[in-house]
Amino acid sequence: MALKCLADDYSRYKKSFQLFLERSSEHQCMRDFIRGVLPDILASIGQGKSNLNILGVGSGAAKTFYVQYKGRSEIDLEIMSQLRLKHPGVNIDNEVVEPSEEMMLNYKALVSKSPNLEHINFNWNKMTASEFENHWRGKKLTKKMDFIHMIQMLYYVADPDATVSFFRSLLNKNGKLMIILVADKNKWGNLLKKYRKQLCQNDISQCVTTGDIKSFLDAKGIKYKNYQLPSQLDITECFKEGDERGELLLDFLTQVLNFSKTAPPDLKKGVMDFLRHPDCSEEGDGKVVFNNMLEVLVLDA
Ligand SMILES: C[S@@+](CC[C@H](N)C(=O)[O-])C[C@H]1O[C@@H](n2cnc3c(N)ncnc32)[C@H](O)[C@@H]1O
């Protein structure tokens, strides 16, 4: 019998994603990148214009629960604040594309509570990337974007290459498209690829890594810069039989609903051995730490 997808149970997806964020250094490494490297990239866009068009795809404030818990700011607003520092006084038009009602509401709530957003106009598009593409083409819209970001969202589309191509086509002459995904060195993609047929079956890409996107860009001769973001994920609890948090994390890692309870024993053993393999994780001081390297790709128009 086919295993159920975690995405089919939004409440459990949310819990497992929250736990994933708590156990990983992902947010920290993204924030360091946004504060340390991104400002120079943002400085190169706009060419002195008084208005900048920004587009965030899959931009929901997924990290809001974590934000409230850790007192951190949301990634998109972090990008906005760096943009404001590099382009003081410019007006920003920010298109937000996000299919989840709850993520969108979280983001709106965060915006309403944040100071210093007076030069930013938010346009809320509650739709998937492909619905947005249909909407854009249907209305024959011609607006061009100065900066587009797609952070940890290409796993959820059916055709990541086509999605990248469409959004890149919306860039202004010196605009940039920033993608953040798991790096090809990150074995999580290999895990999902290896067990693809046995894990949940759906029409989304899930196991896409920056390696796949780079192959596509290289084949098309599209120029990009890449930056690796080392990040760790503490998966120790996954190896404690019956540990509720370990089970939630395993659901997130496999994208299967109740993986520990529903996966056949040979699949479960294969996945657990894979996660603990020295190519994937380091063990020491009673901890198993998974190497969850991320990579940023920055594409030109
Ligand atoms: C892992 S979260 C990342 C959220 C945010 N970018 C961040 O880094 O905190 C993935 C996001 O993509 C959104 N998403 C899922 N399917 C999508 C699709 N087909 N098109 C656009 N966004 C999608 C989800 O609702 C969610 O907000």
UniProtKB/TrEMBL annotation:
Keyword Kinase: no
Alphabetical UniProt keywords: Methyltransferase, S-adenosyl-L-methionine, Transferase
One biological process term in Gene Ontology: methylation
GO function term, MF aspect, one: N-methyltransferase activity
Residues holding substrate: E26, N292
Claim: Repeat is one of the keywords in the record: no
Oligomeric form and interacting partners: Monomer.
Protein name listed in UniProt: Histamine N-methyltransferase
Source organism (scientific name): Albula glossodonta (roundjaw bonefish)
